[in-house]
Amino acid sequence: MATMKLQNINKVYPSGVQAVFDFNIDIKDGEFIVLVGPSGCGKSTTLRMIAGLEEISSGDLILDDKRVNDLAPKDRDISMVFQNYALYAHMTVYHNMAFSLVLRKEHSDVIHERVMWAADILGLTPYLNRKPANLSGGQRQRVAVGRSIVRNPKVFLFDEPLSNLDAKLRGVMRKELKLLHTRLGSTMIYVTHDQIEALTLADRIVVMSQGYVQQIGTPTEIYTNPANLFVANFIGTPPMNIFETKLSEAFELTIGDTLVEIKDKNIQSKLKSYLGKEIVIGIRPEHVLIDNDDQKRIGVRSIVTNYELLGASALVHFMIAKQRVIAKVDERVLFEKNDPIVFNLNLEHTYFFDKETGKRIYIEGEV
């Protein structure tokens, strides 16, 4: 187990392209950190710099209070699990897991003890004499993890380890990795483009875009208090509904053909400097207020364009001023295509963003 600090880490390639800008984080001993973002955002490059597979252009990588920028990968006591498993096809599961210890010239009794310990944790004991070709995708991934944990490194790195698995197996492996972290108590850094993995696995999430860290926080903080429009739109399934509108001098927002008045004095005080300006508002699907159009007279009228039953919940799709909107409702609330509905903005759960910068205008709990 270990602590780690990334201080003003930058990565600039010889071509002049900068992949990572001023990355800063303090990682606690035993913490599970997930780097998440779209392809090309710099998350895997950051992981490879931590592993020593990429040179750090500037900044300091501190492992247990020691600067390790210039240490070779083998000397950092860090283990990495790759997306493609990287198993030796001619070796059995046992020898794949033992190989790194053999290279370190550990005693055979120590090697056997460590391999059997890891196999027991990962449920691989019945497969130790098989070769990778005779294993399922999930079993191969567990072997790759097992090869990593037998070394008992200070830090585990995971580079999109579940992306080659089908959806059901990914769900199973997420649970297994979370249980493994709980059992080992090790420091783990995990890279993924899948925000569901980030929300379910992480102690803290680092959201990245175009080489920059957008926000660092717990899954709850990231989901309920996104720092900017990118985080708000990237985290959450289905994504947040986004509207561009104008805040009038009378604290009114135009949604479709309807004016929505902001009466809350606290919200008014936060938005005062945006009077007369265009802003962006967001509302998550579970907070969208819709009703059948039989009795309701106040609100924005629309019609259902699609209804998706998810089991315990359902998604209702409709349009507001050429903007697609998704509402997440209880599965007992039944809608059909072309049903008339009325939409109202729930200001208690509405997010306000600066249109120019994309930054959150205010965050709940801030003074």
TrEMBL record:
GO terms for cellular component: ATP-binding cassette (ABC) transporter complex, substrate-binding subunit-containing. CDD domains: ABC_MalK_N (cd03301). Residues 4-235 form the ABC transporter domain. GO terms for molecular function: ABC-type transporter activity; ATP binding; ATP hydrolysis activity. Keywords: ATP-binding, Nucleotide-binding, Transport. InterPro entries: AAA+_ATPase (IPR003593), ABC_transporter-like_ATP-bd (IPR003439), ABC_transporter-like_CS (IPR017871), ABC_transpr_MalK-like (IPR015855), ABC_transpr_MalK/UgpC-like (IPR047641), Mo/tungstate-bd_C_term_dom (IPR008995), NA-bd_OB-fold (IPR012340), OB_MalK-like (IPR040582). One of its GO terms (biological process) is carbohydrate transport. This is ABC-type transport system, ATPase component. The lineage of its organism: Bacteria, Bacillati, Mycoplasmatota, Mollicutes, Acholeplasmatales.
